[in-house]
Design goal:
The chain folds into two domains: 31-218 and 261-467, Growth Hormone, Chain: A (Up-down Bundle), CATH 1.20.1250; 219-260. It contains 18 helices and no strands. It has helices spanning 10-60, 64-92, 94-113, 118-146, 149-181, 184-188, 190-204, 219-238, 241-260, 268-273, 275-291, 294-305, 310-317, 319-335, 340-358, 367-394, 401-430, 441-467. The longest helix is centred in the N-terminal third of the chain and has 51 residues, at 10-60. The chain starts with 9 loop residues before the first helix and ends in a 6-residue tail after the last helix.
């Protein structure tokens, strides 16, 4: 008679389930930790650099538009390469692209720190931007690959919180470092941090997450896309109409080419057939176009018009990202329970109100009002960003996670570049290429007021784009 003692009991299966669950939790934690630290680095660099710009301007004796290019060159390079690297990550592996990106970013930081001229500094910032593109294109995609839909909003919220923490510490540490050790220290500090995250990612991330492995990489489409973005942004910042026309021609050529390619670098059908995806990306583009240059404008205003040193300027500007960091995780959690479009649209409305208040800034505006309004802006951005990203990533299937993540990054970066381009355009019209001296302070204030008013209009349009995206559940 057969003995049932030889058959495994439930405890064996329970043990296997516990082991699997433990390994899965460990993978989630490691992926979250590494992507969070990487997501901290890049915005930290951006916000710290804004504080250092006046000091860089004094050393190299350059005008406000050239200072704008020191910030814009990084964003432009990151925007040009985010979508191609996102597609490459889907095909070849997200870990591989992520790790290489951290190394390139660290090298770019070192080259920026030792740059002997404005031209070489801008070139080094481009190297940084290429590394940043590889990080932007993969970090959210890795999180989306690891976390299930019911936990995704919270994970993205934590990641967004890290971005805002980087933005928070950037003005404070950037101001402290610039005042006490010079502007080059802002770039030097990124080198050991970048190498640390590179080592952790190389050793601890076990999977590649390449759901599109074996598919063809679209080199021709990538080249058209990058050149189109370069020409368009350059034309806007330098008022070069021929470059704008060439950029628009390449835009239509890119759409036509990608629509008929079997395995495109950017799945145009995602925009044509997925209303949530297209309108969420449009909302992100408008939001970042309306808000990124706020730090740049206020850094110039506080240091030139108000006479604050870099450290105190950083202490004032920190009020916005601190609020963003506090509420980003809550907003992500909320978007797992309430339709993301409701939360994100409310955030866009709060942001528009804050920008409108800033459009009335003048030489006598109190610091307490600036700090309070920065906190209001931070709250609006926190409500918008995590839910909007959650809506984008939840609207596509797994094999498009890399492209979707890269599209999110590209909307953010393109929006940031457009924000800077708009400010530089206003500065070019009202001030021209002049070094900022006391006789030009009234023009600086007028440039700030006009920029904030234009930003307000962009945000109001963004509210309608956010509301129109429909339900994702």
């Amino acid at each position: 008679m057969a003995s049932f003692d030889k058959f495994p009991d439930d405890s064996c299966f329970s043990e296997e389930r516990r082991t699997f669950k433990s390994e899965n939790m460990n993978t989630k934690f490691i992926a979250l930790l590494i992507t969070v630290v990487a997501s901290f680095l890049t915005p930290f660099m951006g916000s710290a650099t804004n504080i250092a710009l006046p000091s860089i301007g004094k050393e190299f004796e350059v005008d406000a538009i050239t200072l704008g290019w020191i910030a814009t060159s990084y964003l432009l390079a990151a925007g040009m390469f985010s979508v191609p690297f996102g597609r490459l990550a889907d095909v070849r592996g997200r870990k591989k692209v992520f790790v290489i990106g951290l190394l390139v970013y660290s090298i770019g930081s070192f080259l920026s720190a030792i740059a002997p001229s404005t031209e070489l500094l801008i070139g080094s910032r481009i190297v940084q931007g290429i590394g940043g593109a590889m990080i932007f294109a993969t970090s959210v995609a890795i999180l989306t690959s690891v976390f299930p839909p019911n936990e995704r909003g919270k994970a993205i919220g934590v990641n967004t919180g890290a971005v805002y923490t980087g933005l928070s510490l950037g003005p404070f540490l950037g101001g402290y470092l610039t005042q006490n050790f010079g502007w080059r220290s802002v770039f030097f500090i990124n080198v050991p941090l970048g190498i640390l995250v590179f080592t952790l990612a190389l050793l601890k991330l076990r999977e590649e997450w390449a759901e599109a492995r074996g598919e063809r990489f679209d080199f021709k489409g990538s080249a058209i896309y990058s050149l189109m973005l370069l020409l368009t942004i350059y034309s806007l910042t330098e008022l070069a109409v021929p470059f704008l026309i060439a950029g628009l021609i390449l835009l239509f050529a890119f759409i036509a080419y990608e629509s008929r390619v079997e395995q495109p670098v950017l799945e145009i059908r995602l925009f044509r057939n997925n209303l949530t995806f297209s309108l969420s990306n449009l909302a992100a583009l408008l939001n970042y176009s309306a808000t990124f240059a706020v730090g740049f404008i206020l850094s110039l205003y506080l240091q030139y018009v108000k006479g604050f040193d870099p450290q105190n300027t950083g202490m004032i500007l920190i009020s916005q990202p601190v609020i963003m960091a506090i509420f980003a995780t809550f907003a992500g959690w909320l978007s797992d329970r309430i339709e993301p479009r409701i939360v994100a649209s409310a955030g866009m409305a709060v942001t528009a109100l804050s920008l409108f208040i800033f459009s009335n800034i003048d030489a006598s505006t109190s610091i307490s009002l600036i700090v309070a309004n920065l906190m209001l802006l931070g709250f609006g951005l926190a409500l918008f960003s995590s839910p909007n990203t959650n809506a984008i990533m939840s609207s596509v299937e797994r094999k498009f996670f890399g492209v979707a993540s890269a599209t999110v990054a590209t909307m953010r970066l393109t929006g940031q570049v457009l924000s800077m381009a708009l400010v530089m355009l206003v500065f070019s019209i009202l001030m021209g290429r002049v070094e900022i001296t006391p006789e030009y302070y009234p023009m600086l204030i007028e440039s700030a007021r006009l920029s904030f008013m234009l930003f307000t209009v962009l945000c109001i349009v963004g509210i309608f784009a956010s509301l129109g995206r429909g339900r994702i559940r």
